[in-house]
UniProtKB/TrEMBL annotation:
Keywords: Aminotransferase, Transferase. It comes from Maribacter flavus. This is Aminotransferase class I/II-fold pyridoxal phosphate-dependent enzyme. GO terms for molecular function: transaminase activity. Residues 46-385 form the Aminotransferase class I/classII large domain. Coiled coil: none annotated. The keyword Secreted does not apply. InterPro entries: Acyl_CoA_acyltransferase, Aminotransferase_I/II_large, AON_synthase_class-II, BioF2-like_GNAT_dom, PyrdxlP-dep_Trfase, PyrdxlP-dep_Trfase_major, PyrdxlP-dep_Trfase_small. Its cofactor is pyridoxal 5'-phosphate. Gene3D superfamilies: Aspartate Aminotransferase, domain 1, Type I PLP-dependent aspartate aminotransferase-like (Major domain). Residues 677-769 form the BioF2-like acetyltransferase domain.
Length: 801
C-alpha cells in the first residue's frame, strides 16, 4: 500500500457536519419573537427545550434582565477599551462578588476559550509538561497546543485512566518542574465526572502534579455558592489547582472565571495573559447581569434552585430506569446521553423526537467518535415533570423504530459503546440473500472470483493464493494475517457483493506525518509494538485497487451493502479489531452516503495511477504519443541515462541478486515514514522468486554489471494487468542513474513487449508517473474507530518534533 495523504481534520469535520446539516439536525435557527427557556421554536413548531446548557434557567430571571437593561441605559452597549488600561465601571463590583463566591482571587475573561488561550501559556513554564485527558474540551487542547512552539511536551491519556496518567508522571518526574494534568470537571457529552478526589490523592504522591480543570458544565447547579463540581469535591482550592468556571451557561450571563489560590501565579496571569490583555472586555449589560446572578449565588436561594433542578434530574433518571434505552453514563449531572451508534440512526431519532415536539441535541464527531453518535439531553429548571415523562415515553417508542428504519439493532448500539446488552435479539434473516465468509481462497471458485475481482492489483485468485502463502506461519505477529473472503448472493446464486478482508497489525501512526512517526520509532527501539493495533481492513497492506465488487443496480443492492457492513461490525467484535478500514474508492462513489451513515470517516489517499497500453505496438510509439511537454521530460530526464545502465527482466533471481533486491526494497521502506508500516516477512521475496507470475525489472550500471541499483517487483494479473507492486532503489545512485524514472520507463516498455494492455502503477509519485502518460485518479479510504484517542494523540504530537 502506498503512502496515504495526511488527514485534513477540518475537511473531515466539514463533511460530517454537512451530512448532519442535510439531515436537518445541525445548524438550525430558532424562531419566534420571544424565548421562555421552556420551549423553543424550530421550523415553525414550538418544542419542549431539552438542549440548553442554562441548567438553572437564570438567563430568564427578571433580576438579571433588569440589571442588563439598566446598564445599557447608563453605560451603553459596550465599553470599547482594553481592560489593561481601564475596566468599565461595573467590573470591580463583579470581580469582588465572584471572588467572594470562590473565596480566592479570580480573573474574569471574555469567554472560556479566550481564557484558556490566555491562561495556559502564562501558567505553564518552558520546563513543564502537559498531560491532556483525551476528552478534555477542544478549547483546552487548542490552547495547550500553542506551547509546542516553546518545546513544552504535550502528552495524552485515555479518558480518566489514572494508571496511564501515573505512567506519564513517572516518565517526567525527574526531568520536569511541574506536570500539568488538564481535564474537564463535568464532561459535556456524556455528563460523566473527573475523578477529582483520586487525582488529589495522586498529587500527594507526586508533588509536581498540578491540575487545570475546565468546570464550565459543573458551574452553578452544584457546590457551595454554585462554584461547581470540582470545588465541591475539593472543599478548598489548593495552590496546585487552576479552576475555570463559566458565566455563559448556568450562571445566566456571559464571560468566564478563573479561580487561583496561588498568589504569585495569579499575579503572573493577571498582569499579562495574552487575550486577557488585548481582547475586548465584557459589555456593561453582561457585567451587570453577572453581578445580579452573583448575588443569587451568594444567597441561600442558590441551594433552593439547585434542589429544584436535582428533583428534575432524579425524576428523569427514574423514568429512564424503567426503559431499555442505552443511557451511556448514569450519574447525577443534568447531562444525559442516549447512544444510537450509527450517525444515520442518530439523525432519524432526533428528527422523530422533534416531530413529537421535543428538541434535543445530536452528539457527533469530533465531540464523540463517529460510531458513538447519540442524543445529548440536558435537564433544566424550565422542564416540568409532565414533559420530562413525555420525552422518555417518546424516546422509548421511537428508539426501536429509528433502529429498524436505519437497518440496525440494539446489540450493535451497545457494542459501539462497549456496554452489555440488556437483552439479546435473534439474528434477523437475510431475506433472499446468502452470505458466505471463507477463510481461504481455495474455498472460493476461481472463475467467479476472477470474473468479479480479477484484472487489477495483486488479488486475482492466484494472487490471493500467493498472499496467503506469504503471510502465514511466520515468527513475528506482524507477518501473520487472517484472510476473510466475503460473498453475498441472491436466490439465484449470483454474487451481488464480493470482497476480501485482512486482519493484521498496523502501526497507529501509519497515516501520520513523518516527523511524528520518527519520534514514535525512537520508542519502538525498546518496544517494537508501541502504538500498534490490530486492524480489520478491506484489501490489505500489500494490495491497491478496487477491492470490492458490488452490483449497486441489483434490486437488493442496498440491503446487501447494509448486511456487509453489519458483518464487518461482527468481525471487528469477534476479532477485537481497534479500527475498520475500507479502501481505494473514487471521489464520487455510491458507497459515500452509506458509509457516512454507518459511522465511517473519509480520508484522502494519494492519487492512483494507471497506464493504458491498448493498441500500443512499441515503446517508441508510446513516447511519441505523449504530450509535447512530457516528450521533453523524456528527452531531458530519462533518455540521457538509458545508456548508463543495463536493464533486464528476470523471472528468477540468483541468490546474490535476491539479497541485493531485498536490501534495496528495505532502503525504500525505511525512508517512507509517511507510510509507516511493519516490514514484510523475508519469505515474501523468496516466494516471489519461486512464483512464475512475478518477475523483476533490474537496473545495473554498464560498468558494474553485478551491481543492482534498482529493481521493480512486477506481478502479472491474468495477463490483463501488469502490477509493479514494489520498488527497490540504491539511494546513493538515485540521481546518477535517474533510477526511479528509468524503472518507470522500463516497466512500460516491458508491458508493451509482453502485450499486457494496462499497468496499475499504484499510488505515490503521481507527478513522475503523469509525466510518462499515467492517468491519475483521486482515491479515498473510509475509517471507523472505537474511539478518537489515537487520532487525537497523533494530532497532539504533530508539530512537536
Amino acid at each position: 500500500m502506498a503512502k496515504i495523504k495526511h488527514h485534513n481534520f477540518l475537511n473531515t469535520v466539514h463533511e460530517v457536519f454537512t451530512d448532519a446539516k442535510q439531515a436537518g439536525v445541525l445548524h438550525l435557527y430558532a424562531g419566534g419573537e420571544s424565548f421562555s427557556g421552556r420551549t423553543i421554536r424550530v421550523g415553525g413548531k414550538d418544542m419542549f427545550h431539552f438542549g440548553t446548557t442554562g441548567y438553572l434557567g437564570l438567563e430568564q430571571d427578571v433580576r438579571l434582565k433588569e440589571a442588563a437593561k439598566e446598564a445599557i441605559d447608563k453605560f451603553g452597549t459596550q465599553f470599547p477599551l482594553s481592560k489593561s488600561y481601564i475596566s468599565n465601571p461595573l467590573y470591580e463590583a463583579l470581580e469582588s462578588s465572584i471572588g467572594e463566591m470562590y473565596g480566592h482571587p479570580i480573573i474574569i475573561t471574555k469567554n472560556s476559550t479566550l481564557g484558556h488561550l490566555g491562561v495556559i501559556p502564562s501558567a505553564v513554564d518552558d520546563d513543564d509538561v502537559i498531560i491532556l485527558d483525551h476528552q478534555v474540551h477542544w478549547s483546552v487542547q487548542n490552547a495547550a497546543k500553542m506551547l509546542k512552539t516553546r518545546s513544552v511536551p504535550i502528552e495524552m491519556i485515555r479518558h480518566n485512566n489514572l494508571e496511564m496518567l501515573e505512567d506519564k508522571i513517572k516518565k517526567y518526574r525527574d526531568s520536569k518542574r511541574h506536570i500539568w494534568y488538564m481535564a474537564d470537571g463535568i464532561y459535556s457529552m456524556y455528563g460523566d465526572y473527573a475523578p477529582v478526589k483520586e487525582l488529589m490523592d495522586l498529587s500527594e504522591k507526586y508533588p509536581q502534579l498540578h491540575f487545570y480543570f475546565d468546570d464550565v458544565h459543573g458551574m452553578s447547579w452544584v457546590g457551595q455558592n454554585g462554584t461547581g463540581y470540582v470545588l465541591d469535591q475539593l472543599g478548598e482550592l489548593p495552590e496546585n489547582v487552576l479552576l475555570f468556571g463559566t458565566l455563559s451557561k448556568t450562571f445566566g450571563t456571559s464571560g468566564a472565571v478563573l479561580a487561583c489560590s496561588n498568589a504569585k501565579l495569579y499575579d503572573k496571569i493577571k498582569t499579562f495573559g495574552g487575550p486577557l490583555t488585548f481582547s475586548a472586555q465584557l459589555e456593561p449589560a453582561s457585567v451587570a447581569a453577572a453581578i445580579a446572578s452573583a448575588k443569587i449565588h451568594l444567597s441561600e436561594e442558590i441551594y433552593e434552585l439547585q434542589g429544584e433542578l436535582r428533583e428534575r434530574i432524579d425524576y428523569f433518571n427514574a423514568c429512564l430506569g424503567a426503559t431499555e434505552l442505552p443511557l451511556i453514563d448514569r450519574n447525577e449531572s443534568p447531562v444525559f446521553y442516549i447512544g444510537t451508534g450509527m450517525p444515520k440512526t442518530g439523525y432519524n431519532f432526533v428528527n422523530r423526537l422533534m416531530g413529537e415536539g421535543f428538541y434535543v441535541n445530536l452528539g457527533i464527531f469530533p465531540a464523540v467518535p463517529v460510531k458513538n453518535t447519540g442524543v445529548r439531553i440536558t435537564i433544566s429548571r424550565h422542564n416540568e415533570k409532565a414533559e420530562i415523562k413525555g420525552l422518555v415515553d417518546a424516546m422509548a417508542y421511537h428508539f426501536p423504530l429509528a433502529l429498524e428504519e436505519t437497518g440496525t439493532n440494539p446489540e450493535r448500539v451497545y457494542h459501539a459503546f462497549t456496554l452489555e446488552p440488556k437483552t439479546r435479539e435473534e439474528r434477523r434473516p437475510l431475506d433472499d440473500l446468502t452470505l458466505e465468509a471463507k477463510e481461504s481462497i481455495n474455498q472460493v471458485d476461481r472463475e467467479a472470483w476472477n470474473r468479479c475481482l480479477g484484472g487489477q492489483g495483486v488479488y486475482d485468485w492466484a494472487g490471493m493464493k500467493f498472499l496467503e502463502s506469504v503471510f502465514h506461519g511466520n515468527s513475528k505477529k506482524e507477518h501473520n494475517w487472517s484472510f476473510r473472503y466475503v460473498i453475498i448472493r441472491d436466490v439465484n446464486g449470483n454474487p451481488i457483493l464480493m470482497t476480501f478482508l485482512t486482519f493484521s497489525l498496523w502501526k497507529d501512526d501509519m497515516l501520520a506525518p513523518s516527523e511524528v512517526s520518527r519520534s514514535i520509532e525512537e520508542e519502538r527501539r525498546l518496544n517494537p509494538y508501541h502504538l500498534s493495533s490490530m486492524i480489520l481492513s478491506m484489501g490489505s497492506l500489500f494490495t491497491e485497487g478496487d477491492h470490492v465488487y458490488w452490483d449497486s443496480a441489483h434490486p437488493l443492492g442496498d440491503l446487501t451493502m447494509n448486511i456487509f457492513l453489519e458483518f464487518m461490525e461482527q468481525e471487528e467484535r469477534k476479532l477485537g479489531a481497534k479500527m475498520t478500514v475500507l479502501r481505494d474508492f473514487p471521489k464520487e462513489s455510491n458507497w459515500n452516503s452509506h458509509l457516512y451513515g454507518h459511522g465511517f470517516l473519509r480520508v484522502q489517499m494519494p492519487d492512483s495511477c494507471t497506464v493504458d497500453l491498448q493498441e500500443t505496438p512499441s515503446i517508441e510509439q508510446y513516447i511519441g504519443a505523449l504530450s509535447s511537454r512530457n516528450r521533453r521530460h523524456f528527452r531531458k530526464d530519462i533518455q540521457p541515462y538509458l545508456g548508463l545502465v543495463h536493464c533486464r527482466a528476470v523471472q528468477k533471481l540468483t541468490a546474490v541478486q535476491l539479497v541485493q533486491a531485498k536490501k534495496l526494497f528495505g532502503e525504500v521502506q525505511s525512508r517512507n515514514l509517511g507510510l509507516n508500516t511493519y516490514s514484510f516477512p523475508d519469505a515474501l521475496f523468496d516466494r516471489m522468486n519461486e512464483n512464475p507470475l512475478w518477475e523483476f525489472i533490474m537496473l545495473c550500471p554498464t560498468d558494474e554489471p553485478d551491481r543492482v541499483v534498482g529493481v521493480m517487483f512486477c506481478y502479472t494479473n491474468t495477463n490483463q494487468v501488469c502490477v509493479p507492486a514494489f520498488v527497490g532503489m540504491d539511494y546513493g545512485a538515485l540521481e546518477q542513474y535517474a533510477v526511479y524514472r528509468q524503472l518507470l520507463y522500463h516497466t512500460i516498455e516491458r508491458a508493451i513487449v509482453l502485450g499486457i494492455p494496462k499497468i496499475d502503477f499504484g499510488m505515490t509519485a503521481a507527478f513522475e508517473k503523469r509525466k510518462l502518460g499515467a492517468i491519475v485518479q483521486e482515491k479515498y479510504a473510509y475509517i471507523q474507530t472505537r474511539d478518537n484517542f489515537i487520532l487525537e494523540l497523533l494530532g497532539v504530537m504533530e508539530g512537536q518534533q
